[in-house]
Protein 1
Amino acid sequence: MMNAHVSMWACAHAHMFTCPHGHMRFPLILALGACFIRWTLHANGTITDGFNFAPIHLLLLLAAVFMAGWQAMKADATVEVAGLFKAGFRAAMTYAVVAALFAYALYSWLDPTFFPIKVNALVDQAIKEGHTEAEAREKVGHFFSPFNYATITLAAFMVIGAIDSMVCALLHHKLLRKVTR
């Protein structure tokens, strides 16, 4: 029992993406798939703002967390809630890091004009409301940047991933463990 837990821990931490058990493979595939879809939709102009794509990210994040808990239960039938939470949160973090790196790359290199256009539109709106251009540009310009967008993406997916991990861990522990026995 202890050797299986140590082996799973060592596998997940020392060789996160080359693990023979594939603990991080599924969330990584989901995240890369979401990035590919997001990039395709952005490239053809269907979705230009990340908030419109958020429901897809949230669904895939939940799927990654759920499957990680299911894999943890499959690997060790006696795993406790904390182990299920840890497995789910690890999957959520993998997804969150990939999505945040993609968001940074998208708005820094693939579409570097997105934020300047957005900032200019917000500054124009603020000027119409009676603010000075310098004041509006200072307030808006610091917030709308690829780094801030990626940081907000990472933080939001961490929080949502933690909530999803706890809900899925309880679901696995209380309900699915009884069904799968």
Protein 2
Amino acid sequence: MCIRDRYERVEANVRTMVDRFGIGDDEPVYGFWGLFHSLGVTVNGGARPLVLRLRDSDLPFADSVVNLTMSYADSRQNMPSRMLPGLLRPDTPFFEAPASQDNPYLAYLRGIGDMKAVAGEADATVFRINSPDSPYADGARMTEQTGLLTYVFPFRIDRSAGFPSDYAILIQGAPALTPYEG
């Protein structure tokens, strides 16, 4: 399924919830999406992530969408086994993998050292990174990654579009979530 089809389905589901349950009229609406989907600017030469699409929509909460990007250090995640080549694929639907953006070989987020220094040993810390006096408003810190995974999943933020996120959350030492099999 291509990303456009997926977003069309997501938007249709959100519209159903707005129509049927009145979400967004007088209470916050929350969504949990990955890094690409949570950005409020175009990516990879014009691709429009979900947050940008919601902000440009006619949904009742379009003018109040706030985006938070999540970064991870020393954590784990479950990934679909089908994404691995057959030789490496386990017999289970998911496999556990590292989730850490402080690994200079696999995935390194520029500025994650700053977040880790401020967060100390906290499991989760929220940072407002788009404030007028933010040291992250210009440049690549908190928004660009290097490492092997950036070649596997290329990701280039279109800088001319503005700052890509309102807040950043650093998650440290999180175990992998168990997939729902209900």
